[in-house]
């Protein structure tokens, strides 16, 4: 996603502080961090999944890899703006990869475990990050965590 998209995320967050009940700046930052976390999870999902179906569906594998790149870059850009270091980003990426590989017992025969957890959510997040940020801002404002609508 573009820098313009990143800027729109924060413009949206700031606009919500004017139109909704007053928010603390820390709520906006916390909501942004939560979205970064979800974007990163989805990026790893989109990286790992195509290894299991690349031969059967090369077009879908390319789409997944492209989504991984787009949302990974967005997660890193937004993450940096809320204090996430590149080193921490990469470390979490590695941990998420290990966790997901463990979840499928390092076998593509079990890929449905990840698909059930991430497919719908990550598709939605990759297509409409702004809506998820709005949800997280509302959750932070209501002091609700975790925020409904995330991965299963």
Helix content range: over 70%
Through-space gap between termini: 24 Å
Number of helices: 7
Low-confidence stretches: none
Beta strand count: 0
Overall tally of structural domains: 1
- What's the order of the H and E elements? HHHHHHH
What number is the mean pLDDT?
88
Q: Determine Rg (CA atoms, Å).
A: 16 Å
3D shape: elongated
Largest sheet: none
Alpha-beta classification: mainly alpha
Please indicate the percent range of residues in DSSP E strands (runs of 2 or more): under 5%
List the keywords:
152 residues, mainly alpha, elongated
Question: What would you note in describing this structure?
Answer:
By secondary structure, this protein is mostly helical. It has one domain (3-141). Helix content is 76%, strand content 0%. It is built from seven helices and no strands. The longest helix is centred in the first third of the chain and has 24 residues, at 25-48. The radius of gyration is 16 Å and the shape is elongated. The two termini are 24 Å apart. The model has no long low-confidence stretch (mean pLDDT 88).
